[in-house]
Amino acid sequence: MLVVSSVVAIAFAATMSLAAVGIEALIYVGAGTSMVIAPYAIYQRKQLRDMDSMRRVQNKIRKEVNRLQGENDKLHNNVTDLTTQVDRVEECEKELSSITDGMGKSVNEFVDLVKEHKKINTEIKKHLQIQVLQSLMDVVIKSDRDNDGVFSAQELKMVKVFIRNIRSVTFHEDRFDKIMDENPTLKNLMRIVRNLLDENVSEDERVFELHVDKFMEAGLP
Predict the structure, then answer these.
(1) Cα–Cα distance between 66 and 59 in angstroms, integer?
(2) Are both 186 and 211 inside the same structural domain?
(3) pLDDT band at 174, cuts 50/70/90?
(4) Contact by Cβ (8 Å): 158, 143
(5) Per mean pLDDT, which range of 4-18, 84-98, 110-124 is the poorest?
(6) Most confident of 125-134, 139-148, 176-185, 195-204
(7) Boundary-marking domain end, from 58, 74, 104
(8) Which of 134, 142, 212, 219 is most buried, with most CB under 10 Å away?
């Protein structure tokens, strides 16, 4: 009986020792497994975050590609419109060239005609100035009836009536009155007449303005 009890005690002790060793081994195994799995889990989370970031980047790239595609479509349409406009311009140039050829005149000839026309207008203006000046001188002398070199209100009225009837001249009567009211003398009136020939007189000070087109229509000032 004593032997049996001893054997049982020894067996129990051995079993407990094995159990203790097994638990300790399990603890070490579990700890080791955790040490292996933890970095892997961290790596996995990092991979997931990277994948999410990559997905967002891809979405942004996709949106940018779509936007650029839209801009490209607009640019293509603009190029098409410009091509159409260029074609129209070329057609207009051909038509103008055809008209010019049909008339037998080149661009240089047309420019020469414009210059010649300008020169003729200048000559006409000079002729008109001389005629108007002669007419004004004549009326100035005739209006000073008492030959005292000073114009009365009635004499100035006669001068203005005559000037208003000159069809090729714009008469600024208010400017005339302002000058003559201060000094209604023959000398002052002659200064106004010479104003007609002075190219340096500013537009707002001119008493007379010549109109070549009216002169050509009327034939006389």
Answers:
(1) 10
(2) yes
(3) very high
(4) yes
(5) 4-18
(6) 176-185
(7) 104
(8) 212
Q: Could you give the CA distance from residue 55 to residue 190 in angstroms, rounded to a whole number?
A: 94
**Closest of 219, 200, 201, 207 to residue 136, by C-alpha:** 207
Q: Give the separation between CA 101 and CA 61, rounded to whole angstroms.
A: 58
How many CB atoms within 10 Å of residue 7? 10
Q: State which H helix or E strand residue 118 sits in.
A: helix 107-143
SS3 196: coil
Instruction: Tell me the C-alpha distance between 172 and 160, whole Å.
Output: 10
Count of Cβ atoms closer than 10 Å to residue 136 Cβ: 23
Cα–Cα distance for residue pair 221/115, rounded to 1 Å? 25
Q: Domain check: are 97 and 137 in the same one?
A: no
Residue with tokens 């000032």: 221
User: What domain range includes position 214?
Assistant: 107-218
Nearest CA among 161, 162, 175, 158 for reference residue 209: 175
CA angle 116, 110, 211 (to 5 degrees): 45
Burial category of 208 from C-beta neighbours within 10 Å (exposed 0-12, middle 13-18, buried 19 and up):
buried
Please, are residues 163 and 189 in contact by the beta-carbon 8 Å criterion? no
**Same domain as 78, residue 32:** yes
Q: Is the pLDDT of residue 113 over 80?
A: no
Beta-bridge partner residues of 150: 185
Check residue 73 and report its DSSP letter. Answer: H
Q: Which residues pair with 169 in a beta bridge?
A: 210
> 3-state SS of 32-45?
HHHHHHHHHHHHHH
